[in-house]
Amino acid sequence: MTVSKDWFRAESLYQISLSVARSMLEKGIISKEEFTEIDTILLQKYRPTVGTLLAGKPLP
């Protein structure tokens, strides 16, 4: 199985960005609602395949 650079980049950027948001949520910087909104925006921006499966949300 070959992974394209674009696919890998989208997955990586989504996971890194979501990790930052998750850290902010855990520290109380953002609310659960804000985290959910950030996740939705990141899904739309990066359109990750694996990230979408883990998020349990369909791509818009």
Question: How would you describe the overall organization of this protein?
Answer:
This protein has three helices and no strands. By secondary structure, it is an all-alpha fold. The chain has one domain (5-55). The protein has helices spanning 5-26, 32-46, 49-55. 73% of the residues lie in helices and 0% in strands.
What keyword list fits this structure?
60 residues; 0% strand; single chain; 73% helix; mainly alpha
List the helices and strands and how they pair.
Elements: H1 5-26, H2 32-46, H3 49-55
State the end-to-end CA separation.
27 Å
The succession of helices and strands, N to C, reads HHH
C-alpha Rg (nearest Å): 12 Å
Strand content: under 5%
Mean pLDDT reading: 84
Estimate percent helicity.
Answer: over 70%
Question: Which shape, going by the Cα principal axes?
Answer: elongated
Structural class: mainly alpha
Stretches where pLDDT is under 50 for at least 5 consecutive residues are none
The major sheet is characterized as:
none
- Supply the number of helical segments: 3
Q: Kindly give the count of domains.
A: 1
By DSSP, the count of extended strands is 0
